[in-house]
Amino acid sequence: xxxxxxxxxxxxxxxxxxxxxxxNGKPLTKKAGACVxxxxxxxxxxxxxxxxxxxxxxxxxLNNQARNNGLDENMVFALIKIxxxxxxxxxxxxxxxxxxxxxINKAYLKEKxxxxxxMDERQNIAAGCxxxxxxxxxxxxxxxxxxxxxxxxxxxxxxxxxxxxxxxYSKKVMNEVRSLKEKQ
Length: 184
What we know:
Elements lengths: L1 E3 L2 H11 L4 E2 L2 E2 L2 H11 L4 E3 L8 H13 L4 H12 L10 E2 L4 E2 L3 H8 L7 H19 L2 H20 L6 H16 L1
Antiparallel strand pairs: 1-4, 2-3, 5-6
């Protein structure tokens, strides 16, 4: 559901929630937590989902990162559900965190964004939104961007040469986007 949250309410939430706000795995002070939350504020409307097992502050951060990278917030929530089931996990194939970012991207993301820990939820969301946003800008459609995110650009291009512009994965994510929007 879309919720309108005022600045004062956000500051109060930041102070209350600051013990669960971390940077590089260390809890922030209440003052620093409030600053992080204020930094997250891009507008007074956020796409927040009560039924998603993700802290409200993390959901707000996701909203900000999605918007900053030209993405629909629900597409990022849907991608996370499909990739990791909203769990911050590392796979056997070296994919990390909520958005399952592969280790092969570490050096690139450190250079571009200063990302140092793909298992840190906020760094993972920032990195995943950056990568997906660049793909969306480059390939224009959600399906093509999702295909490139999931199988790499080379793998996606091989399918596009065959006239395949939607994959099982991209359809699954977009079906989840529709489902999330229906709940709003």
